[in-house]
UniProtKB/TrEMBL annotation:
Provenance organism: Strombidium rassoulzadegani
Region named Disordered: 1-40
Gene3D superfamilies: protein kinase ck2 holoenzyme, chain C, domain 1 (1.10.1820.10)
Protein name (database record): Casein kinase II subunit beta
Gene Ontology CC terms, in alphabetical order: cytoplasm; protein kinase CK2 complex
Pfam families for this protein: CK_II_beta (PF01214)
Similarity comment: family membership: Belongs to the casein kinase 2 subunit beta family.
Superkingdom of origin organism: Eukaryota
UniProt cross-references to PANTHER family, sorted A to Z: CASEIN KINASE II SUBUNIT BETA
Native organism taxonomy: Eukaryota, Sar, Alveolata, Ciliophora, Intramacronucleata
Biased composition (Acidic residues): 15-26
Length: 142
């Protein structure tokens, strides 16, 4: 199963299809949120915000994207998914880091739901590491 050139969400076209694990660090120095709509009523929320806002996820904090993009913080996590290929792992990271949240069509798609479950599991492992950092603990106390 080659997911390298598939869109993050099956029902959504995206120009971010060339994401590579090596691209996880931002060398441009530009703020990541430069293009975010400041009006919360019209702002598009990403997968992380959507996931943390789900019922039952009250104790989840939004892990900083820079933390997720740092390969050091992901070391060994793929081993928790024995049958997962490197490409699928990258695809799940792209899904987690997506600036788009799933829509109703996505949530009705069985293939998406399987990927979303794996992304949720991966995010849970990343979250568990993140909350043990000073930044993660600070977010918990907020």
């Amino acid at each position: 199963l080659n997911m390298e050139n598939e869109p993050i969400y099956p029902n959504c076209d995206s120009a971010d299809n060339d994401f590579q694990m090596e691209d996880m660090s931002d060398e441009s120095g530009a703020p990541r949120d430069a293009n975010v709509d400041p009006d919360p009523e019209t702002a598009v929320q990403g997968w992380i915000h959507w996931f943390c806002a789900l019922e039952g996820h009250e104790y989840m904090v939004e892990v900083d994207e820079d933390y997720i993009r740092d390969p050091f913080n992901l070391y060994g996590l793929q081993g928790n998914f024995p049958s997962m290929t490197k490409d699928k792992f990258k695809h799940l990271l792209r899904m987690i880091l997506s600036p788009q949240s799933p829509n109703e069509e996505d949530l009705a798609d069985e293939q998406f739901l399987e990927l979303n479950q794996e992304a949720s599991d991966l995010y849970g492992l990343i979250h568990a590491r993140y909350i043990n950092t000073a930044y993660g603990m600070a977010k918990i106390y907020q």
